[in-house]
Amino acid sequence: MRRHIALLAALGALAISPALAADPPRDRDKEIAGLIAAYSDFIAKRDGDAIVLKDGTRFAIDDGKGEKSVEGIFDDADIEDMFHFRYRLGNQGMPPDVDDDPGRVRFQPLFLKMYGDCQADAVDANLTDVPWLPKHGGKSFRITRVNGVDKALAKVSAELDELPEKFMKYLVPHSGSFNCRTIAGTKRLSMHAYAAAIDLNTKYTTYWQWTKPSAGGFYFWSNEIPLEIVRVFEKHGFIWGGKWYHFDTMHFEYRPEVLAAAIPETKP
Question: pTM for the whole thing?
Fold first, then answer.
């Protein structure tokens, strides 16, 4: 099964599918409006080419640095860069194109303002325990209350708790949430450092750095997480790391602004 999935990923990297060719153009106004709506507790308004936080802080939407390399988009992101890659809902976005990592770009100053800097012990005060699949004996997640992440995760848990038993092996036990750390090999904070991300059971998940690339440096996408689980998370504001070329199929993070600008699911 994994070999079959890897072959599909390789073929997908060689050509642009009709679905991708037909994608609607980006709508910058919609993206920024979705960002403001998603984080309305912190963002007051848009003012021209900037967003203004409720404490008066201004962040430029476009930093004026022009076209960036792939590394630059991640390491020196502005707000606009967060929407550079298009997230695709439901049954779309698998396997991802090479270097297509929708939602993996984060404008760190905004997230630090909202969630706090764990390296300065500014996250702990907003942490709370969210029971995880209590009908199936799941242990609680330590998650942030900021932006209602805890409430959103509680809805995810309640809905997943009602799925058939065959899905439970992917969900219980989980692999944690809050972890004050940077992303491996970078200086960028992980969403786990804001307590706004969770990891599922690693026994049934895959991660790009656990795989060996091809001779040409291509990473072959693989996944075992059922789409039924992914849909529940997306419904409540979480994106899935399985839709990244640098895949992390255990990983879900709260990113409602990315989902607000996402390409809708195509129905079979």
Answer: 0.90
